[in-house]
TrEMBL record:
Subcellular location: Cytoplasmic vesicle membrane
Occurrences of domain PX (ranges): 250-360
Compositionally biased intervals (Pro residues): 85-112
Domain of life according to the entry: Eukaryota
Protein's UniProt keywords contain Protein transport: yes
Domain SH3: 1-61
PROSITE patterns in alphabetical order: PX (PS50195), SH3 (PS50002)
Membrane-traversing stretches: none
Protein's UniProt name: SNX18 protein
Species the sequence originates in: Loxia curvirostra (Red crossbill)
Alphabetic keyword roster: Cell cycle, Cell division, Cytoplasmic vesicle, Endocytosis, Membrane, Mitosis, Protein transport, SH3 domain, Transport
Name of a matching Pfam family: BAR_3_WASP_bdg
Bias-annotated ranges (Acidic residues): 123-133
Family recorded in the similarity comment: Belongs to the sorting nexin family.
Length: 599
């Protein structure tokens, strides 16, 4: 017996996988079992998908055609409490076996399950030494704050803990009420319908907005204790929202990469010496320690662009050129970490910089504490403190315009950076191979001419022969100058471009979180206008969206500020090196020219 249902109200689809309904329309149901208030079926236009169960009435009459298979019978809905089966639910033996949730399409930008960063592991980054522990739960007392007391004092002391929650208003998404999560109750429900209207959840549970915890925070489902030291303050600056400056700015140098061994020489690795300016105490870190830190920071800060590390290399990792290039990349990475007001003060980063290399116990305690951090996901947004009072509110349309403008900017910058990187790389290759070869070919030709002239034994021609031979040597030296020059000017430019390409790759996810929050605000406003949601509930959603918007705009402003600083400095360095290079070339030519004065 086929199942059919009649639509009681109009319904307009808003998300992928939903279908629209018209009042009195007859639909074919795939299954009578609803999934958190949703049914799957086929409408009269042949569209197949999900729709609210409360918008239809099941028609218990036989039909000629069997129902299509229930593709969505096993769709996981994150964070929802399971519903008891309806009275008409058939025994499991009579139900067709549900198909697994379809995998994301090829090229999908997010991992299939879980939103946390997975550090890459390679031959030079094994975790099989005394500094590591597979456990991720710390029972020992914290070791992070004690290693850097100044920051704790600056934040008012880490002892103050405040319970923050976004659950102060009635639940935004009542479960088990028989109504679809994310759509209003049918019209005509009076006050009860208004108080129980909800803002929809994204059907795509793999989106960055969902995985970052942004959706749960905006919908009022985050709660936790926030210490004074965990607070991240956004202030209003001359360019708009900005992260509050670090009261104790510092830098950290990366020097003297050395090859070390363990297991009696059976395993080798490169250790880098770090010297933070605020402690003056050197520590040694391997690349895998950088990799672990990056993973923790990328997971903790969904609206902050954590700079990418230099790429790994499976072979040739002990070659001098590779070690030098990696050290320069790590130096850029460290500069951006120390320059960021939030990242520089993060407990995990301070532990990485200050924990003595020989103190195994302190390292493990700090590592475990960072991995146990509860202020991640939706709770991370509880730590953000934004301006309040007159003139501190954000206009949503203006925010959306600024974010859209920045999105267009990053797209154009990414294209330009790729083009410049390709051009610089090609030009450097020509200098190292082509230009050197051509100049040395000219020098060789001059040398052949000089050797031919030496066959003339007349005394008055000896000076000319020597001058031409010197000219040949000058062109040979100029060829060497061309081959060495990219190390001085083009390579630093390409290193900077590589760092910023990592930042540009981060911002689509950051923007997606902010856009998702704006979408929830617009939906709540529409519910209020239709009289289906209380104003207080919608205002709570907008307040939480403002927090995400403040943080996003603060990160955008920091990006522009640091970008201007970096590219100004790098372009100055590039042109200075170009001038020095051509001065060296000119000097070689002038020396050759003066040889002819005595001929």
């Amino acid at each position: 017996m086929a199942l059919r249902a009649r639509a009681l109200y109009d319904f307009r689809s808003e998300n992928p996988g939903e279908i629209s309904l018209r009042e009195h329309e007859v639909l074919s149901l795939c299954s009578e079992q609803d999934i958190e208030g949703w049914l799957e079926g086929v409408n009269s236009r042949g569209d197949r998908g999900l729709f609210p169960a409360s918008y239809v009435q099941v028609i218990r009459a036989p039909a000629a055609e069997p129902p299509p298979p229930a593709r969505y019978a096993n769709v996981p809905v994150g964070g929802f409490e399971p519903l008891p089966p309806p009275a008409a639910f058939k025994p499991a033996a009579q139900q067709p076996p549900p198909e697994p949730y379809p995998p994301p399409p090829a090229g999908y930008p997010f991992p299939p399950y879980g939103g946390s960063y997975q550090p890459s592991q390679g031959s030079d980054d094994d975790w099989d030494d005394d500094w590591d522990d597979s456990s991720t739960v710390a029972d020992e007392p914290g070791a992070l704050g004690s290693s850097y007391p100044d920051y704790e004092a600056a934040g008012g002391g880490a002892s103050g803990r405040y319970r923050l929650s976004t659950r102060s208003e009635p639940s935004l998404g009542p479960r088990g009420a028989g109504h679809p999560p994310g759509h209003p109750h049918p019209p005509g429900g009076g006050g009860a319908a208004k108080s129980s209207a909800t803002v929809s959840r994204n059907l795509n549970r793999f989106s960055t907005f969902v995985k970052s915890g942004g959706e749960a925070f905006v919908l009022g489902e985050a709660s936790g204790f926030v210490k004074d030291g965990d607070k991240l303050c956004v202030v209003l600056g001359p360019r708009g929202p900005e992260w509050q400056e670090n009261p104790y700015p510092f830098q950290c140098s990366i020097e003297d990469p050395t090859k070390q061994t363990k297991f009696k020489g059976m395993k080798s690795y490169i250790a880098y010496k770090l010297v933070p300016s605020h402690t003056g105490q050197q520590v040694h870190r391997r690349y895998k320690h950088f990799d672990w830190l990056y993973g923790r920071l990328a997971e903790k800060f969904p609206v902050i662009s954590v700079p990418h590390l230099p790429e790994k290399q499976a072979t040739g990792r002990f070659e001098e050129d590779f070690i030098s290039k990696r050290r320069k990349g790590l130096a850029w990475w460290m500069d951006h970490m120390c320059s960021h007001p939030v990242l520089a003060q993060c407990d995990a980063f301070q532990h990485f910089l200050t924990c003595p290399s020989t103190d195994e116990k302190a390292w493990k305690q700090g590592k475990r504490k960072a991995e146990k951090d509860e202020m991640v996901g939706a709770n991370f947004f509880l730590t953000i403190s934004v301006p309040t009072g007159p003139g501190a509110s954000l206009d949503l349309q203006e925010v959306e315009s600024q974010v859209d403008g920045f999105k267009a900017f990053t797209k154009k910058m990414d294209e330009s950076a790729l083009q410049l990187n390709h051009t610089a790389n090609e030009f450097a290759r020509k200098q190292v191979t082509g230009f050197k070869k051509e100049y040395q070919k000219v020098g060789h030709s001059f040398k052949c001419l000089s050797q031919a002239f030496e066959l003339d034994q007349q005394a008055f021609s000896a000076g000319l022969n020597q001058a031409i031979a010197f000219t040949a040597e000058a062109y040979d030296a100029i060829g060497d100058l061309f081959a060495d020059q990219p190390r001085q000017d083009l390579d630093p430019v390409m290193d900077l471009l590589a760092l910023y390409q990592g930042h540009l790759a981060n911002f689509p996810d950051i923007i997606h979180v902010q856009k998702g929050a704006l979408t929830k605000v617009k939906e709540s406003k529409r519910h209020v206008e239709e009289g289906k949601m209380e104003l207080q509930k919608a205002e709570g959603i907008q307040e939480r969206c403002n927090i995400i918007s403040f943080a996003t705009l603060a990160e955008i402003n920091h990006f522009h500020k640091i970008r201007v600083r970096d590219f100004k400095s790098q372009m100055q360095h590039f042109l200075q090196q170009q001038i020095l290079f051509f001065q060296k070339v000119t000097q070689k030519l002038e020396e050759a020219l003066h040889k002819y004065d005595s001929v």
